[in-house]
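User: Predict the complex.
Assistant: Input components as received:
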Amino acid sequence: MLEQLIPNLKNQIGKLKIGNFTWQNSRAFWTVLALFIIIVANRLISPNFFSIQMVEGRLIGSLINILDGAAPIMLLSIGMTLVIATKGVDLSVGAVMAICAAVAVMLINQYESGATDFYYTPPFVILIALGTGALCGLWNGILVAFFDIQPIVATMILMTSGRGIAQMITNGQSPTFTDDTLAFIGRGVIFGVPFPIYLYLAVFLLVYLLVRRTAIGLMIESVGINARASYYAGINASLIKVLVYVLSGVCAALAGLIIAGEVKSADPHKNGEWAELDAILAVVIGGTSLSGGRFSLGLSALGVLIVQSLLTGLYISKLHPTANLVVKAIVVLVVLLFQSDEFRRRIRQLVRRRA
Amino acid sequence: MSINEQTQFPLLETQGLTKSFIATLALSEVDFTLHAGEVHALLGENGAGKSTLIKLITGVHPKDAGTILLEGKVIEPRSPGHAQELGISAVYQEINLIPTLSVAENIFLGRQPMRFGLVNMRSANRRARELLETFHIDIDVTRDLSSYSIAIQQIVAIVRGVDLSAKVLILDEPTSSLDRHEVETLFSVIRSLKKRGIGILLITHFIDQVYEISDRITVLRNGLKVGEHQTQELPKVKLVSEMLGKELTDELMVQNGQQTNGESEHETFLQVRGFARRGMMEPFDVVVKKGEIVGLAGLLGSGRTETAHLIFGIEKSETGEAYVKGQKVNLTSPQKAIRHGFGLCPEDRKAEGIIDDLTVRENIILALQAKMGWFNHLSRKRQEQLAQEMIDALRIVTPDTEKPVKELSGGNQQKVILARWLISNPEFLILDEPTRGIDVGAHVEIINIIKRLAKEGKAMMVISSELAEVVDYSDRVVVLRDRKKITELEGDQISENTIMQTIAER
Amino acid sequence: MRHIKWVVLVLVALSLVAPLAVAQEDTGEGLTIGFSQIGSESAWRTSFTNAVKAEAEARGINLLFSDAQQEQENQIAAMQAWIAQGDVDAIVLAPVVVSGWDVVLQEAKDAGIPVVIVDRNVDSDPSLFVTRVSSDFVHEGRLAAAWLVQATSGQCNIVELYGTVGSAAAEDRNQGFNEVIALFPGMKIIRSETGNFVRTEGKQVMESFLSAEDPANICAVWAHNDDMAIGAIEAIKEAGLVPAKDILIVSVDAIPDIFDSLDAGETNATVELSPFMGAPAFDAVVSYLNGEELPKWVPVAGKLYTDRAAYDADHQ
């Protein structure tokens, strides 16, 4: 039954073609299906899951909450997708979030205590924080591209030392701030929709145009699939690698600012804690292989939404909190299994043998 | 099993074997038999279905329909490992071993002799040495596999396959990387395996070798079986025409060298003086002129590929200088070489040439796009147009521009890499073994392309193991031995005999 | 009223559990004590350090202070230096991690220097140290529950923001809270989810609660720490409700930010995670040196605050 249903469904959906994106691409199909099932399950648990209300100029509802809550990791997933597509990985993004948030909050505190230099004004503070993220990415990129250090090792250096750096910046404290401009990044609302969602969409669009409307996307994939052959074909693989790590650093800076704005403080320990693993998981669920190559920014975002929707579902279910991690692990496992061609082939064989 | 049973049934038999991939029928109702103690050659052009047949027999892909029988019993191989358990071992053209493990570890991978629960490396090393000695190969089995030539790696793969005590041994292009002496070694082993009653399924593009070693021949074309013959009863011409599905033309008959001696005053494109790198290549000079083909001849390991890599900037020369059209240039990276109008089709197509997950279109435009820069983006339409032009011009067999290049046959992949350079309109092309591992038809086409490019005025440097081929198209031949340029042959000097004599001279 | 009777009973019970401050003649004047602190990663850690220093000064104890910057090696090195020089009468250790202390504790014991563990736990054999002084998380849960019982007259549907599952702070606070509300049939935890002690997660969990439940049905939020409570306040405000009025909020820690919320009338109560571990630690040292028997755990309980003034009064 299922055996006939799924390919049928796939063929039906397969006929929908948007630009050069086809549903026939099986990874996309299973990722979208997983998100769909989780959302339907959430709706079954909570009847008003889809309800969205306007309260005091702000849209309120589970779907908005999911997008808002997922925005920082979705931002990370943009950079992480590109890094992973080059056969790399960036373990440092969580620490970079903490560093950039610390830089921003320490500078804004100067501003709040009366410093008038232009570089203490909120727009410059934000620029400096983004620059710090880019610098962190540059460091990673140089280690990977020019010193040929394995990405997992190269970025681990900043991952382990980064929180220490953030603590040094904040003198070991978790400074708070009140500036509304900086807070707006995390908690602002425009037309009822939380600002982080706009921020994600804007960055997504910019990066999408950067990689797909130029040759950069192709170069990234080429380097990720076969770095040697790409080098022979005249591609500057080193520069491509530096670029993706810098982008990843900037995405991390933005994510760090969202968290800092949300809680109005820079907590060097908790800002971005485990974020790198969440981002990597999302990219993998989105179907970009850890061995590099073909990538999809959109599917990585869906990967984040799958995890966030699942978490929301767990929050509204009455399961005991101890079950959360187990349920999360099982769902992730099932999604990844169904993306595996080998697993599907075996299931088919099993079904056939029964029939 | 009784002797009777073994003779009653063929060793391996397929009946009505069928397999299709998305939109293409790769194999259609193929009946094939392999007897114990015979060498059966499986021949066909690229895309004929040879690889598919093997992959079904070894359980890489599930079959759509048909039956596979081993000694008269139906088998359902689920994976190469399972096929191996059943007694079917395969050694593929692209070596599937682990380069960072030692030779012995590769031979015994997954079935190391154990002692007290630990891998007994001493015993493994000893047994590996013994096995290799039956091939008259004496090497240090404790060194990494990657430190040996492709030829040795190939032999190690075969040794591993033979040692899995197979009933059926499948050899996919086993000789494509071996020199004549190594081929002899391999053939003597194949003969001894025959005597032990092992059935050998051989895929090769070397027609002469087919006649030398095989008992029977099965020819496939476009997924169909088109003939099954006793080798000795089949004239070569008939075999080739059966494979190609057309009458032979003169193109296949290699006779004449280049007749361009008249217009010898070509303009010099590249002049290299004293390029060298320790451990790779002794200092050499070379000149390549526009519209001229320079052949590089020499045995495996003589420094042919190294010469190409130094010129293209993959390896940096430690000494000497290079001039392009009289201007001194810096050739320290492929990017710089490409900027001066160079292009290189590498020897190892899979590792250095194709980007396997990318489409035919993307592979074709890659070098041009890299040359144009990140932001000067070729539109999708332009890309498709360029790719299609190349597909037509080089007769690349692919359903469309969007097929992943890894799904193409070897010869078509080679054409894709050629196309990659041709659209970037280079003035100088280096081709390293452009005809290796591809079938007769594509072979002829590629040689014709090479000649045409030279006529169009491109400077060409071609490396090939097939002397007849080098003699056919070269204006000049650079002969290499032991990582050293020995001499350069020109005009009437160019013949297989003189080249071999030059190489053999001491 | 029936409820009041219960409340009185509870408060009596709590006062029995709370450690009794025994006035001691011997304050330890003239002793030299080494104090190895984890670092200064949070405001709470800093006030803990300051409280220990102030207590030592008041008692006339010569305190040797060492900041380990979050590294166990630094703590071990400092302790070994003190032991080698033989210039301390006792060591107070705030361990950064649970394991890996056996060797240095044995060295201290062999040198006859008593060690008192404060704050976090160690997994070494209890014979290697004098006693452990740490917060009584169960008591904190009880205090929060008792306040909520009083504030709601024993009638309340509670949503719980759980700390990190498996951490002692979360499990014990949950246990203490449940012990007390079990006495009142009108008190129910209707939803419980983990926010991992993190502000943003506390907010996300609260958002889910508000969408899954009719907000009118939620009487109070019980958060295992202040950070999650602050996140919940955000969620409640964004849902158009008034925190601390429509939905009561009680949490644990007494971090500076929560007092800003108390000032703004956005939360109701916080139980202090007491930084005052200096006094019981020094008392333990003195008792040990006087040859007295000591229990292996000396709990320290914080107080519950509903405004800044009362807190400031206790932290002069």
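The first helix of chain C runs from residue 2 to 17.
Let me know if you want any component modeled separately.
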